[in-house]
Amino acid sequence: MDIRRPSCALIILLVLYFTHPTECIQNNGKINFREKEKQILDQILGPGRYDARIRPSGINGTGYAPTLVHVNMFLRSISKIDDYKMEYSVQLTFREQWLDERLKFNNLGGRLKYLTLTEANRVWMPDLFFSNEKEGHFHNIIMPNVYIRIFPNGNVLYSIRISLTLSCPMNLKLYPLDKQTCSLRMASYGWTTDDLVFLWKEGDPVQVVKNLHLPRFTLEKFLTDYCNSKTNTGEYSCLKVDLLFKREFSYYLIQIYIPCCMLVIVSWVSFWLDQGAVPARVSLGVTTLLTMATQSSGINASLPPVSYTKAIDVWTGVCLTFVFGALLEFALVNYASRSDMHRENMKKNKKANIDAASDMMDTDSNTTFAMKPLMRTSGCHGNDQLARCEVHITRQKNCCRLWMSKFPTRSKRIDVISRITFPLVFALFNLIYWSTYLFRDEDEEK
Fold first, then answer.
1. Torsion angles phi and psi, residue 399, rounded to 5
2. pLDDT digits 0-9 by tens, 81-94
């Protein structure tokens, strides 16, 4: 009997341990903090103790002062910036912090730092919304990415991860050498500034992930500011952060500017082809013109239709003009060539007529001596006299005309002049274009 009594007592202790573990731990001098958190949450958020419909009191517990909400955020990624729709997509962790004295609790001597909730409807929440939002959604994989922390002094921290698509009005006058400022605006929907005021958190209110990568832009800097708005229903608190993006020019240099330059230079090849190679010159001119037109259409297809002229429009327009000018130049050369041929035929016919008339005069001995001196001294009609007159006129021309005299036909002269004029004018255009758009002041860009 003495041996059985201890074993019965041990069995009773084990049953009590597994059926009442909290009491057993407390009896051993330890505290179950999970149980304490439950008791505190029931105490401050229980039925009849807390009303989430009533906003917290203002500074020092005054009911007439507005509730101050401090805001900060962490930009996780910027997935795209759409020039055509004028919008951008961003994923961020958004945080709000305010004081609600109704949620104060005992921190058990500093051993309970804060309480964590995952249900936002349990406490009062600011009615913040993003005023320039187009689309947005929360993240619920694997669990909803949201939490609420309640601190012993009544401070409440609300954090949530969200993805937003926001409007970004753009000025594309300098495209693709432009900089764009996209804003993220947050405002109160129903509470006026008499009841609710949003403030940026002191000390680095906006943080950006270090390895932020954008395909065609670079985030140069960001600025925080206030944007309170007044309507006929009152004044509402508003915060904004301006993100300054600089467009990466290397992509457009390779995809647009260099190909356009190559097309213009290829169109100049026709100046070096023989003027009689009509099929080759026509094919070259038409092909480069159509290619340039297709390039210009493809560029404009990715941009919104705007009422002003963009920098890329100036470039493609001038390049298209040069290509079209090269085609017109061949039309002029072809016309001049046919005119030269006609003039050459006229000269041959005239020379034949003169020779025939001279032969007839030689047969008549009476009129030969009387007429020959008159005919040969009347001007530059003979071959020798024509040559002397041309030499005399050539000596009076300047160096440029002397050089041009090496090309006897007008069609050849037009080709030679085009070989020099087109590249010089295009180089001058490049000098003006790049000096205008690359070195423009930031104030003028706005």
1. -65, -35
2. 999 999 999 999 99
The DSSP symbol for 58 reads -
Where are any strands of DSSP class E within 201-237? 206-208, 217-226, 229-231, 234-236
Q: Provide the 3-class DSSP secondary structure of residue 82.
A: strand
b/e burial code for range 265-299 (CB count within 10 A of at least 16 → b): ebbbebbeeebeeeeebeebbeebbebbeebbeeb
Give the tens place of pLDDT for each residue, 32-55: 767 888 888 888 888 888 888 888
Question: How many Å apart are CA 98 and CA 330, to the nearest integer?
Answer: 77
Can you give the pLDDT at residue 441? 60
- Buried/exposed code over 19-57 (b: 16+ C-beta within 10 A; e: otherwise): eeeeeeeeeeeeeeeeebeeebbeebbeeeebeeeebbb
H-state helical runs in 257-409:
258-267, 278-301, 311-363, 365-376, 383-395, 399-404
Inform me whether the pLDDT recorded for 228 exceeds 90. Answer: yes
- Contact indicator for 242, 225 with CB cutoff of 8 Å: yes
pLDDT in tens, 65-74: 899 999 999 9
**Backbone phi, then psi, for 128, in 5-degree steps?**
-80, 145
Euclidean distance between CA atoms 355 and 103, whole angstroms: 123
How many CB atoms sit inside 10 A of residue 388's CB? 12
Rounded Cα gap, residues 318 and 300, in angstroms:
15
**Residue 171, pLDDT above cutoff 70:** yes
Q: Residue 356's pLDDT is what?
A: 62
